[in-house]
Amino acid sequence: MRQPTIQLFLLLIFALPVAAQSSKIHISAPSKSLSWFPIHLTREKGFYRDAGLDVDYVIMKPQVAMQALIAGDVGYTTALGSTIRAAFRGVPLRVVMTIADKPLFALIGRPGITSVDDLKNKMLGISSFGASTDTYARALLRRFKLTPNQDVKIIALGGGMNRIAAMEAGAVDAALIEAPYNVMLERKGFRKILFVGDLIPSPLAGFGTRVEKIQKQSDEVQRLVRATLRGIQYAKSNKQETVRSIMKWTDLDQALAQGSYEMAVSSWSSSGAASAQGLQIAMEEIRAEFKLDAAPDAAKAFDWTFVQK
Predict the structure, then answer these.
(1) How far is CA 309 from CA 80, 156, 228, 304, in A?
(2) Were 283 and a residue from 36, 58, 61, 295 both cysteine, which residue would form a disulfide, CB within 3.0 to 4.6 Å?
(3) Model confidence, pTM
(4) pLDDT value, residue 130
């Protein structure tokens, strides 16, 4: 038998660690929210590791997240609102998957605020300008014939705990706030006026990435999407374990975590693609925001190739 050459021996030695390595992926998110909690659960259960991925996430303001995504400092962002708007402004970005099919935002008001109409000449708190809370706040006000920053002043306050503090201090009259923070405010005696997802069921969270990554690293995108869909199905099928994970992740007690789960689970997408109605609503909001004559083509911002395979 011929002895293997030195070159082949070295090739085998150095190829083994490479094959064992996982692709390192950084994902940005605007805040810790149950809208993208399945990413955390997927990582916790080892589903990303099973797919050969080493996934980590970092909390960034949407504007910073967009800059990091475009520069390649992060591979993906969960901030779909910012991704969609950037794509329609000509930035080469696409949404490749939705995790939350509808916004997990509740409009919470101080005592005395019982309807959206009561917000006239009042102040409404959001996370930051350009974020999904900003987009949905403006869309919500327009639906009730109120002009943003004319009839209702919109104030950027930061993450969920900042909005809670502002509500407690009386700095704003109402806030658009996501789970689990809305549940915290309700426990403190504030009033839920409405759930935004009931009125505007358009996609909220998922994966936005660069067109370049789609073209050059399609296998990575596919593995990320498949593993996350596995995590979503696990979350939907294993309530008690998912609630325990939420408790640990958010430092909530069981009642709060369970209430948050009940609100969030119906929004988590089983297919990874936005519904036709959700896309239509999202495009109508873009048309109104960009002052277009007609709703734009969703294909300029969404690529469902990976969820359809």
Answers:
(1) 21, 40, 14, 9
(2) 295
(3) 0.80
(4) 75
